């Protein structure tokens, strides 16, 4: 991997991780168009540690409060009705689907699911799903109204993002809108829900990212560190922007962007400009 590739992919990861446009799809597409080789699923997983570090910092007070309340609530029944205690369980239970499915289909996720024909198609299809959710969602329920059922449903939606192009934030936002949550409530829970899955995936992928037995670009340790640090810095700014944006705007701009990007990639594939694998 060249230094310019590491830097560009770090920026792309930070910009797109929290938007409903699929960061894994963007890394895959960027690699194919500009660098003619796939940086790989492991590179994506490790750079996501940078963006999740941004989440941990941005929501540090909330995470500490939720974690402390959840631990206390294990033996103190008086706090079990609080939102923080329930939120702790919602994040734990909601993380199970992506953990199980990610483990069972690890090989397919790292190979078959990264085919650009599939990635482009999924970008377009799920753009329309997001549009329907934005149109039909009543957005009458706030974060205080979250239930365990919501956590489970949004957890399964998050698991769909194992396929590049779906978008983890896009899937959870879509599910939240269908559940009548406000965009801001769905986004906040989406940020918290991502922490266990993304951190574990990134940690376990560290050895694989330096494996020279496969194909594609292999970063050095220094390049991996720099790309992850860039993803952290850019991602931190993206969190604040997205929370402000979803509070006052619809998600249709992301729908149009996804359709345009997916169509562009399909066109490049049809003309043989880029390779699908």
Question: Can you describe what's shown?
Answer:
With 277 residues, the chain is mainly alpha-helical. It has one domain (3-270). The protein has helices at residues 3-16, 23-35, 41-58, 60-73, 83-104, 106-110, 116-136, 148-159, 168-178, 183-209, 221-248, 252-270. Helix 3 crosses helix 10.
What is the N-to-C succession of helices and strands? Answer: HHHHHHHHHHHH
pLDDT < 50 runs, ≥5 residues: none
Q: Summarize the biggest pleated sheet.
A: none
Instruction: Estimate the global geometry from the Cα principal axes.
Output: globular
Domain count, please report it: 1
Question: Please, what is the oligomeric state?
Answer: single chain
What is the CA-based Rg, rounded? Answer: 18 Å
Mean of residue pLDDT values: 92
Distance between the termini: 18 Å
**Strand count:** 0
Strand content: under 5%
SS-based structural class? mainly alpha
Number of helices: 12
Instruction: Kindly state the percentage of residues in helix.
Output: over 70%
How would you summarize this macromolecular structure in one to three sentences?
With 277 residues, this protein is an all-alpha fold.
């Amino acid at each position: 991997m060249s230094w310019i590739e590491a830097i560009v992919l770090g920026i792309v990861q930070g910009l797109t991780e929290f938007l409903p446009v699929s960061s894994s799809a963007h890394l895959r597409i960027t690699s194919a168009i500009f660098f003619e080789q796939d940086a790989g699923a492991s590179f994506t997983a490790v750079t996501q540690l940078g963006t999740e570090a941004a989440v941990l910092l941005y929501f540090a007070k909330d995470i500490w409060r939720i974690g402390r309340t959840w631990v206390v609530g294990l033996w103190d029944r008086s706090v079990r009705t609080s939102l923080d205690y329930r939120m702790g369980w919602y994040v734990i239970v909601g993380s199970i689907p992506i953990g199980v499915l990610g483990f069972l289909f690890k090989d397919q996720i790292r190979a078959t699911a990264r085919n650009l024909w599939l990635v482009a198609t999924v970008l377009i299809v799920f753009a329309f799903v997001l549009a329907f959710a934005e149109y039909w969602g009543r957005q009458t329920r706030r974060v205080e109204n979250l239930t365990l059922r919501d956590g489970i449903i949004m957890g399964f939606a998050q698991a769909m993002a194992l396929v590049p192009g779906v978008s983890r934030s896009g899937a959870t936002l879509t599910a939240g809108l269908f559940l009548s949550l406000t965009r801001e409530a769905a986004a906040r829970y989406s940020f918290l829900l991502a922490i266990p899955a993304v951190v574990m995936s990134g940690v376990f992928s560290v050895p694989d990212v330096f494996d020279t037995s496969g194909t594609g670009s292999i970063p050095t340790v220094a390049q991996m560190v720099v790309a992850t640090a860039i993803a952290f810095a850019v991602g931190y700014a993206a969190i604040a922007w997205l929370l402000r944006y979803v509070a006052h705007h619809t998600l249709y701009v992301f729908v149009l962007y996804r359709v345009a990007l997916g169509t562009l990639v399909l066109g490049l594939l049809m003309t043989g400009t880029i390779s699908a694998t």
